[in-house]
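User: I would dearly like some help making sense of a protein record. This is the protein in question:
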Amino acid sequence: MVGFAIWLALTAAGEWQPLFNGKDLTGWKMVGPGRFVVEDGMLKTEGGMGLLYYEREKFGNCTIRVVFKTATNPANSGVIIRLPEPPRDPWYAVHNGYEVQIEERGDEWHSTGSIYSLSKAAKGFQKPTGEWNTMDIVLDGPKTIVYLNGHKVSEFDPSQPVPERKHWYEPVRGPRPDYGYIGLQNHDARSTVYFREVSVKR
């Protein structure tokens, strides 16, 4: 309950700045295969592996809110944070930023709310396919704290030890900036994920 109280306090203060206008991709830029389309006021992933990133500014010391639902099972996606510069391709984002994973079936190091392969997430808080989830990603200096549907599911402090990198597709270990670009991942043709809100609170 302490984590839920902190989440309520974080979401009550300040104003949310929408980054997605519900109409088009103004402010966003696509790199890599696949695409995002706007459908009924929502962003929808198609194909992959690509990245749609917000190119207008960098973010740090803020809360990023992403409201999403999965439309397939499996469904794989993610929120990229702390990118030091505009990505040339989606793999640059993987290895130079952090990915907050969206994937219900993964283990605790690779499931929704984890910092992919770096910080494990508590499982059991993602809603079933077709239901909306609210993910709040708190950027607190170098630390990252993730809440899923009001529950604190992960906290990552990059000054602490992390697991050894085991696979080529896992991110290269190393520091990331406190401020960086953010983006949404479209992972593969079998996965369909919808986003109806991407907002930031300073």
In short: The CA atoms of residues 101 and 113 lie 5 Å apart. Helices lie at 2-12, 90-96. The chain has one domain: 2-201. The first strand starts at residue 16 and ends at 18.
